[in-house]
Design brief:
The structure holds three protein chains of three kinds. Chain A is an all-alpha fold. Chain A has eleven helices and two strands; from the N terminus they run ααααββααααααα. In chain A, strands 1-2 form a two-stranded antiparallel ribbon. In chain C, strand 17 and strand 18 form a beta hairpin. In chain C, helix 3 runs parallel beside helix 4. Chain C is globular, with a radius of gyration of 23 Å. The chains are: A mainly alpha, B mainly alpha, C alpha/beta. Chains in contact: A-B, A-C, B-C.
């Protein structure tokens, strides 16, 4: 029983991080209808920025998340404005292809800059944990989980109530009408994409604390984020939390009861099943 | 007169490419096999993505099934290569028929992600199958005959291109194009869209599987990562899109061109080859999103302005 | 119609550009495809640098003597970008287009498994120091030789040490990644654990490149495992140790097939790396004498001075491969592939890597030394007898 509870706990904590990782992707996809195949690369970049701040500027990794997010926001804004805005109204798979190209470019730029060596963000408190009732609660994972939930709820509130958030939603629903109301779509698209990459960057900084970074993790992270985003549904950040938790727990339990080599099968299997049966996601509005 | 000239040029080109092992260097033959297999893949994707408008991001699942069909047949059962290819092709078609109906109900991004997911699932399934060598993979019987592989690949490209040519002027093809342009209208006109789409899916899968089978036997090694490779999906799409989706020769040209660029980069610039390739992809999508075929078609009227006009059309 | 003409001209131009052949080399050329970029590059670079280092040093000392003349060695290396399929094509290119004389290998059993088939196909010898898995050598190939010791034997000396520890670990777990090398290790280790009279309570395969060991560690804890043997890749081992710490799992000992000998592994973990056991077939000692480098310690110092990082057994193994060719070529007094192949099978000399001698399968037989990280330093603890006191049992995480 205790083993089951511990594994469940692991899965839930992992699920929080998963939710944050996928949040940026879901936002950009749901609002801008841009499927960003480079999303994982932005997570990886965020991880590296955070690592650099931690290693060279000796900034605490949690504090370093703020400059990381700001930097990644600027990068995302820039990329959307200069590159992605040029293809947004073309056929759908052009954005898929161009973001794939971006992913390749980002990966190899990071490899040139930082080499293929793996990096870890290892502050002095990294392995801290509390053990009670036969269960162990890793504290960094708990902090990551709490932060992820916080950011997700903040994003939900932002989209619902803040003026800018509502402008973003308006632009997504009806571009022409939004324009008539004075919204500058190029700026707004770039802003949204930047928000997505900022979230990815923050997730990367947290990821670097619980796992390790190398330039090539982008592709697998993107694939995982797809699964999370789809399972939860793209309509709301709360759906992403659900998706993250479901996937986190499913993976942890699969590793325990079926075997660790089946985890990927289950993750993507759930993705395919959800798509076939209920494409809008488990929490999305059924069309 | 001009039509016969066109046919003559095409035929001469085809003969020249087909006869390459006799006038080209060994390395050119190697490059040729790889480029032709990619051309076959791009062309097979074209059937589903170019003509039917269903951009699959998981055609590598068929490639992998074909490769494993050949590998398992030859290594575990000691069958011949031909029997292996038959097995691989059969696996692909059955798979397409079984999964086609549920998956082809999805559209756009969702369809793309679903196919991607399916490809990953198959990779994970195979990695747990002892008969397929699990994650270690299989080593196929050695055969030292590059000419054979070259001609097989060439024959495959010719075959799939002929099928696409037939599609472009058959009722089946018109049905597919109708589905691409407006699926609801097509259904309203009485086209059994499900049947058409599944048929396109199976056809596309069959040729991808045959390409996979040839590649596995040529490389003599196969593992799940290589067979169900994520980047292979994107490569075949890029090549089809670069050349011109929905055209007969576009994907072949796109594949040969991009392969050439990639090989030259890998040979000369090694370390940053992948970087440049990514940059080429980005540039191609921004400046010529409808592929080379479209560039060549409109160049006479528009010249360099083509690229600017394109961008203005597609940008926000 | 016009577009097709343009297409035709384009294609013809491309074909012409490619019809040009590259010249063959005059020196004795060794060809290799190594992982200079891509996910495996941080071990692949050992091979790239070591091959170059060896060739330069041998040439500086005069080169290779064949038929009474001194010939220089040349190196033709390609970057396979950590892509097995590309590495296979590059080996074909090395043989069919570049027409190199002999082949050196890539890193990692999975690559060697595929690439060695090319060497056998073309009947050109390949001496590789990157693949240890049993599948490579159980195919009856005659042209493939390996300087990494047999995979199934990697934990042999560790198990011997474990029997001498007090208290002997009661419950043992074996974890292994699902690639060629690690499954070979596991298949060989499982019977050895039982033969040593130890109780194997958990034998689990996990997916290569796994980042999350939470469930596995929770299961290890609940079963009360006291010794964990892990056959995997550096990144997995790194994750395992960090997660063991945050889940408060502290067995009496753990031992890993990779990571422990390498400096950036220890650097990444800091103090958390202490107490970990590992293994290496090579240590930079002064007792391993070499014709070109003096001894292993001198080699290590010179390597670090030139490349900026310390070599480990991968680099030493790669250097040994180049030296093996020199010995074989001189013994055969010929560059004919078949003659050199026979000379390789009979080769027997001392090098900075250790004694070089191949079994009938083509693989070297070297004992693994058990090492342990003690206070941030690698200490040789056991080879066939106890060399230093192992720090055992491992104190709990809280008490460090």
């Amino acid at each position: 029983m205790q083993l089951f509870l511990q594994v469940l706990l692991n899965g839930v904590l992992q699920g929080g991080l998963y939710a944050l990782m996928a949040l940026g992707l879901a936002l950009v996809w749901g609002v801008l209808n841009i499927v960003n195949l480079a999303h994982g690369a932005f997570i990886m970049l965020g991880g590296y920025v955070c690592w650099a701040l931690f290693t060279w500027a000796h900034l605490d990794p949690f504090l370093a998340l703020i400059p990381t997010a700001v930097l990644l926001f600027a990068l995302g804004y820039g990329i959307q404005r200069t590159v992605l805005n040029k293809v947004v109204r073309g056929p759908m798979f052009n954005t898929l292809l161009i973001t794939f190209g971006l992913e390749v470019v980002l990966t190899y730029l990071v490899q040139l800059a930082f080499s293929a060596d793996f990096r870890t963000i290892n502050p002095s408190y990294s392995g801290a944990n509390i053990s009670r009732f036969g269960l162990t609660l890793p504290l960094v994972n708990l902090a990551v989980f709490a932060l992820a939930l916080l950011l997700t709820v903040a994003m939900w509130l932002f989209l619902l109530h803040a003026r800018l958030g509502r402008s973003i939603r308006a632009t997504a629903q009806n571009l022409t009408a939004a324009r008539l109301y004075g919204v500058e779509p190029r700026h707004l698209y770039a802003l949204t994409f930047g928000l997505g990459t900022a979230l990815a960057g923050a997730a990367g900084g947290l990821y670097g604390q619980v796992s390790q970074l190398n330039p090539y993790i982008g592709a697998t992270l993107t694939a995982k984020c797809f699964a999370i985003a789809i399972i939860g549904g793209l309509d709301s950040p709360l759906g992403v939390i659900a998706g993250g938790l479901i996937l986190g727990v499913a993976e942890a339990l699969t590793a325990l009861y079926i075997g660790p080599t089946y985890v990927e099968l289950v993750s993507f299997g759930i993705l395919v099943l959800v798509l076939i049966v209920r494409p809008t996601g488990l929490l999305g509005r059924a069309t | 007169m001009k039509r016969t000239l066109l046919w003559g040029v095409l035929a001469a080109l085809a003969v020249a490419i087909g006869a390459l092992p006799w006038w080209g260097s060994d390395v050119l033959v190697q490059f040729g096999i790889n480029a032709l297999l990619l051309a076959a893949l791009a062309q097979s994707w074209n059937i589903l993505g170019g003509y039917t408008g269903y951009a699959s991001f998981g055609n590598s699942v068929f490639y992998g099934l074909g490769a494993y069909g050949v590998a398992i047949a030859m290594v575990q059962f000691q069958w011949s290569f031909a029997a292996g290819m038959a097995l691989g092709g059969a696996l692909a078609v059955v798979f397409a028929l079984l999964l086609g109906v549920p998956v082809l109900r999805l559209k756009g991004h969702y369809f793309a992600i679903a196919t991607l997911g399916i490809s990953q699932v198959m990779g994970a399934v195979v990695a747990n199958l002892p008969i397929a060598g699990s994650n270690i993979g299989l080593v196929l019987p050695l055969i030292n005959n590059n000419v054979l592989f070259y001609e097989l690949s060439f024959a495959l490209v010719v075959a799939v291109t002929l099928v696409v040519w037939w599609i472009a002027r058959s009722r089946f093809g018109y049905g597919l194009i109708a589905i691409r342009e407006n699926e609801e209208a097509a259904a309203a006109m009485g086209i059994n869209t499900t049947w058409f789409k599944v048929a396109a899916y199976a056809l596309s899968g069959l040729f991808a599987a045959l390409a996979g089978g040839i590649h596995a036997y040529w490389i003599t090694f196969l593992d799940p990562g290589g067979a169900f490779d994520l980047t292979l999906n994107v490569k075949m799409i890029i090549m089809a899109v670069f050349g011109g989706p929905g055209t007969v020769l576009g994907p072949v040209v796109g594949a040969l061109l991009l392969s050439a660029i990639s090989e030259v980069l890998a040979a000369k610039v090694t370390g940053v080859a992948a970087l440049f390739f990514g940059a080429v992809i980005v540039a191609a999508v921004v400046f010529m999103p409808r592929g080379m075929a479209d560039v060549l078609r409109r160049w006479p009227q528009q010249g360099w302005r083509y690229f600017g006009l394109n961008m203005r059309k597609n940008r926000l | 119609m016009k577009p097709t003409f343009r297409t035709a001209r384009l294609l013809l131009g491309l074909m012409a550009a490619f019809a040009v052949s590259l010249p063959a080399y005059a020196d004795i050329t060794l060809g290799a495809s190594v992982q200079e970029t891509g996910p495996v590059a941080n071990t692949g670079r050992y091979y790239r640098d070591a091959y170059q280092f060896a060739v330069d040093r041998i040439n500086a000392a005069g080169g290779v003597t064949v038929d009474g003349k001194k010939e220089k060695l040349a190196l033709k290396m390609y970057d396979n970008q950590s892509d097995i399929n590309l590495s296979v094509r590059q080996y074909v290119q090395l043989l069919s287009e570049d027409k190199v004389n002999f082949l050196l290998g890539p890193f990692d059993s999975s690559y060697v498994l595929a690439d060695s088939a090319i060497a056998e196909k073309y009947q050109i010898p390949m001496v590789q120091g990157g693949g240890a898995s049993n599948q490579i050598f159980s195919r009856g190939f005659r042209y493939v030789f390996g300087t990494l010791p047999v995979a199934s034997d990697y934990f042999g000396s560790t198990l011997q040490l474990m029997k001498q520890l007090r208290p002997v670990p009661a419950k043992v777990a074996l974890l292994y990644a699902d690639d060629a090398f690690d499954t070979s290790v596991a298949q060989g280790t499982e019977p050895k654990i039982k033969a040593a009279g130890l109780d194997l309570v958990m034998n689990q395969k996990y997916a290569s490149n796994s980042a999350d060991f939470g469930s596995t560690i929770a299961e290890l804890k609940s079963k009360g495992v006291q010794a964990v043997l892990v056959a995997g890749h550096e990144t997995e081992v790194l994750n395992f140790i960090r997660q063991a710490k945050s889940l408060n799992f502290d067995p009496l000992m753990y031992s890993f097939t990779v990571g422990v000998p390498s400096a950036d592994f220890r650097h990444a973990l800091g103090k958390d790396a202490d107490y970990a056991f590992g293994m290496t077939p090579w240590l930079p000692s002064t007792t391993l004498k070499d014709r070109w480098f003096g001894n292993a310690a001198d080699f290590a110092a010179a390597y670090k001075a030139r490349f900026g990082y310390a070599p480990d057994y991968h680099a030493a193994s790669a250097v040994a491969d180049v030296e093996t060719y020199v010995h074989a070529i001189e013994a055969a007094n010929s560059l004919d592939p078949k003659t050199v192949r026979d000379a390789l099978a009979r080769v027997n000399f001392e090098s900075l890597y250790g004694p070089i001698r191949f079994a009938a399968t083509g693989q070297i037989s070297l004992p693994q030394n058990v090492i342990q990280i003690q206070d941030g330093k690698v200490v040789e603890v056991f080879s066939d007898r106890l060399l230093a006191k192992p720090q055992y049992p491992m104190p709990g995480w809280a008490k460090r």
